[in-house]
Specification:
alpha+beta; Nucleoside Triphosphate Pyrophosphohydrolase; three-stranded antiparallel beta sheet; 4 helices
Length: 221
């Protein structure tokens, strides 16, 4: 989908009618308990329409929840020169390497390589259903609790910025916007969750927003 800016695509709907996840359900203890449960739930977004003709590749990302007084999600802004998803807001993560033993191993390794987050500072809770991006990545979102004192050292070759967004903001559908984009007779749809971070608007959209929407459905079940 080259040649367009997702910020320019009109908003088709905002989900203010859906309930936010209660604050008490966002605490570290509540999140641990939720992953220990076997509640039936339905992911909302699992497969994007492809826009690149390439073989599929396995990948994993770390949905890192920093355990502050107000839990926050750790996100990155990718550098502009990367071959895929350049300049976008993303979770730390990347392709599965042959020596990786699990999705969690991939996510933790990539978090170390991208932002210098050591595995010893992450408590892995579990994995959400795989999400297939339009660029043919089959992504396993690994959810983990991140110690608030964990030092971070972003890799300037991959990461332009590292920041946090309150989990409560992301788990409130009043902040979830639907977009519809028509191109060459194909209709594509995605979510965005723009967050005003001081003077900077963090435009969370596409696969990252889709995985967060699934996380919302998981916590709402």
């Amino acid at each position: 989908m080259a040649g367009f800016d997702p910020r320019d695509v009109p908003v088709a709907q905002v989900d203010s009618h859906l309930p936010a996840v209660p604050l008490q359900a966002l605490s570290p203890m509540a999140l641990r308990q939720r992953f220990a449960q076997a509640l039936v739930w339905t992911p909302e977004v699992l497969l994007e329409k492809p826009y690149m003709n390439r073989p599929s590749a396995q990948a994993a990302v770390l949905v890192g929840i920093v355990m502050r007084d107000e839990p926050a999600v750790l996100l990155t802004e990718r550098t502009a020169h990367l071959s895929t998803h350049s300049g976008q807001v993303a979770f730390p993560g990347g392709r599965v390497d042959p020596e990786d033993g699990s999705a969690a191993h991939t996510a933790l390794r990539e978090a170390w390589e991208e932002v210098g987050l050591a595995a010893e500072h992450v408590e892995v809770l579990g994995t959400l259903p795989t999400y297939v991006t339009g660029s043919s990545f089959v992504v396993s979102p690994v959810v983990g609790l991140v110690a608030p004192q964990a030092p971070l050292t972003p890799n300037p070759d991959e990461v332009a910025d590292v920041f946090e967004v309150p989990l409560a903001f992301l788990m409130n559908p009043a902040n979830h916007r639907h977009h519809v984009f028509e191109s060459e007779g194909i209709s594509r749809q995605w979510f965005s969750m723009p967050y005003q971070d001081g003077d900077v608007t963090r435009f969370i959209w596409g696969a990252t927003a889709g995985m967060l929407r699934n996380f919302y459905r998981f916590l709402s079940a």
